[in-house]
Amino acid sequence: MKILSQRLREAREQAGLKQIEASKLLGISNGTLSGYEREYRDPDTDTLHKMADLYGVSVDWLLGKSMYPSTKDTLQPEPMSEQDSLMFHNWKRMTEEEKQEALNVIQYILYKKKLNNKEDQD
Fold first, then answer.
1. Hey, how many other C-beta atoms are within 10 angstroms of the C-beta on 85?
2. What share of the chain is helix, strand, coil (3-state, %, to 5)?
3. Is the pTM of the predicted complex or chain greater than 0.85?
4. DSSP state, residue 50
5. Helix (H, G, I), strand (E, B) or coil at 6
6. Which of 36, 39, 102, 118 has the least CB density, counted as fewest CB within 10 Å?
7. The CATH number of the domain where 59 resides is what?
8. Could you tell me the end-to-end alpha-carbon distance of the chain, in angstroms, rounded to an integer?
9. 111 is in which domain, residue-wise?
């Protein structure tokens, strides 16, 4: 788990902590923390979560499953409006033919909008 050891060290350094400081805050020995960062040992799940919390990163990032150090760096979906929610709910109940017809109407509306914008610029 080379990526884990690299990211543990990177996260600790980004948090501005020395190994000795981090190990005390985590309740583990300095040697144990050094082992994690040098790939001699793997932390248990509880310790991994403590480290992620202490360093302000996600466990997924530490394990190499995310490109983003913390969840606040990832894109969060915008909440759906009531109208969007209604459209989505109804979309799931439509036949393929009805969906295609709805898409055609939307494309036509967008085409008209594009034409109107072009006329406004002229």
1. 11
2. 70, 0, 30
3. no
4. H
5. helix
6. 118
7. 1.10.260.40
8. 60
9. 82-121
